[in-house]
Structure prediction request, 260 residues.
Amino acid sequence: MKRKTKKLKKEKNLTLVEHLAELRRRIIYSALVLIVAIGFCYSYVEMAIMDLIDIGENIEFVFIAPAELLMSYIKLSLIGGLIIAAPFLIFQIWLFVIPGMDGREKRYIFFSLLLGSMFFIAGVAFAYFVVIPTMIVFFMGFQMEAIKPMISFESYLSFVLSTLFTFGTIFELPILMVLLSRFGILKVSFLKKNRKFIILIIFILAAILTPPDVVSQIILAGPMILLSEIGIFLASIVEKKKVDDESDNDESDEEEKRKE
Prediction:
């Protein structure tokens, strides 16, 4: 324990040049791991493409530029490599910034990253298995005999990736609500008081973003309402803990004043 404390104190007292050297070392390690992960993904990229094609069944994909399919391979490899290397990259960033934080800041950032990653993965999975197949069926329903669908794989890939990223970001709503509550920007009482308006806004967004049928709207609105409720619950816990900490600090300050 003493060795660990001495090591942290030493890292806090590093000079600017030593900090830059440490940053350079972290960047080199991260770049090497990222390159290896991208190369690994490129060797299996055809399997990923076949999975994406299976989602859009009954669609005949084409590529309309000589390098389009190759660029799709590279794009998927880069994204896959970044996903695989993400834990290592985050760990390297954590090791670089941790010496300048106290214990409370470390806990908040750690749990924010952990819960944020879990919610983002849940959003991506929900979009991949539920939302994208539903949207494809809806969009492919708009066909005419005089107009033949000719969908390039690049446009299809951009549609899939943007949808995955959008829903992954939407699922970060509880974490955002917790952080806003922690810093006093958003009050839990305000959220509870205006819960009905939040639900109304969610259904309006679901009606805009989904096909015009009740099932699709519920598929999107249901998880968003659940996420907002989870956010309110977590924010109430954080806000209560914040109030308790402030009251404890006030009591300790009063005791110190009395002793003086």
In short: Confidence is low (pLDDT under 50) at residues 4-10. The first helix runs from residue 2 to 12. The beta strands are 61-62, 151-152. The chain has ten helices and two strands.
